Amino acid sequence: MNCDFCQKNEAFVFIELQGPVIRKKLNLCRECSQRLGIMGNHKEMNSLFKELTDVSNKIAENDNKACPVCGNRLAEIKKNKVGCGECYSIFKDEIRTLLKKQGITGSYTGLMPHRLSNFRSVLTDRIVLQTKLEESIKKEDYEKAAVYRDYLRALEKTPVNNGEIDE
Question: Considering the entire predicted model, what is its pTM?
């Protein structure tokens, strides 16, 4: 078996890195292992293995975290890309990192089901405006707060059933 670095000499040192998800084998000849500081200096070798073990344990520990609602583990969510709503809230940083690695950025701007479009436009708009009003008051931005207050008053006059009058 040839060295993975120089591709010329026969491998003399065999290193296998094994984590919960990744498994990698590294074959080195005597010259390349000495050049990389792997052979001959046991302190550096021990330090290298300790560092690799620490990283592997940290990854395993992180992937073992579970959602308190559904019990899904982060490793399962990464693998299957399925979880409950709380999973995506609890593991949002890890999921964003995973999506970035796959070239997916930004937020989902999907469509609301047609039967819920009226529900969303009136009820959730009230919640959003109320939140923005409270934030503006905290920041003492009273001009924006007045605009949000006026929007809220206009929405309060709008019935939830999309303007149809109940008789």
Answer: 0.35
